[in-house]
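Q: What would this chain look like folded?
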Amino acid sequence: MKRIKFISLGGTIAMTRDEHGYARPALDGETLVAAVPGIERTAQVEVETLMNVPSPHLTPPDIYRLSRHIADLFSRGCYGVVITQGTDTLEETAYLLDLLVKEPISVIVTGAQRDPALLSADGPVNIMEAIQVACDEITPRLGAMVVFGSQVLAGSEVVKTHTSRLDTFKSPELGPLGVVDHGQLYWLRRPVMQDRYAPAHLDARVEVISVNMGSDGVLLNAAVGSGAQGIVLQALGGGHVPPAMVHAVEETVQKGIPVVMTSRCHSGRLMVNTYGYEGSETHLREIGVILGSGLSASKARVKLITLLGMGLPVDQIRHEFEKHLGCV
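A: My prediction, written as structure tokens:
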């Protein structure tokens, strides 16, 4: 029987209702595991409550410390870890752990959309299926994953697509790595990209700037003026910004601050050498913008924080973002 560490960080899955009917963190990991019948027949589960907070309270340094804890657990013979937290930042935790954990250990992140006081709370089944996936022989080789709503999703691809539905987590373009059906795990594919990094810290300040019709450089300049060490542009379409924004982008690049561009579209990749107008993807790349193609803005931010934590120069940061695109 596999030895699995169950680590609780809090979130909706660990909340109860207060006297006003509001959901607040209250339940520890032992209570969560006790609510899953038959879990003791699936794995040797050891429980640890590291934190008990809503997921918007989590920070990259918190997840960095968690990654080091996971490395220590592997050195002590642990086969896998199942982490529960709130869903608001769950995709960022999964991607960070995918980037940081190099050890061949199962890393599964899950949670719940409905707290235990609501009808048909989804926490117990998500925990059970996460434990089942963590015990599989293939799982330690696939990087960090999310198990949620009976789907197995790559940490590098998963996004939260709905505020409240139980099937909120998706891999919009590529689909799940596997599914759990009536207690049986079925693998469908392997992760497309797997990067591993070893930063010294994760405390770089990186801001996401949303680009919209008529946007100019005001927000970008404000971010740089307040000390941003990196910028992620959530650009229009295939990687475009209004002309009123171009000057601020160019000034930011000239200051040695990496500017990574993603799209506000949910699926697809940035274009490369398709359009040639002012503010197009071709123009932006010519002035030094880095293509974060295939990553959501939140994932690009996480990756940029990680690379800055390694002390990499802008050229090497560009390589790490663009090496999968065939344009470097």
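The two ends are 46 Å apart (CA to CA).
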